[in-house]
Design goal:
This protein has one domain: SH3 type barrels. It is globular and about 25 Å long. By secondary structure, it is α+β, with helices and mostly antiparallel strands.
Length: 80
């Protein structure tokens, strides 16, 4: 699922949730926060964008897929 950061130096940045543990989520953007180094953020500090990236398969996800999905979502948000 896509989320947008509500707080911190990355405010308004779009991420994809990799996993959730308790009150924390682990986020990736495929670039500064690749799959190998996800960002840990409190669930209260993100706003869900109730949409799952098209073609999402958590078993075969890559950084390139994440970057492309985020870029397409930002383009879609700009057109609305």
């Amino acid at each position: 699922m896509f989320v947008r950061s509500k707080a911190g130096h990355d405010k308004d940045k779009l991420y994809i949730i990799l996993k959730k543990e308790g009150e924390y989520v682990y986020l990736t953007d495929g670039d500064l926060r690749p799959l190998s180094k996800p960002k840990k953020k409190n669930w209260k500090h993100v706003q869900p964008v109730l949409k799952i990236p098209e073609g999402w398969d958590s078993e075969r996800i890559t950084d390139e897929f994440v970057k492309r999905a985020i870029r397409l979502q930002e383009k879609e948000d700009a057109n609305v």
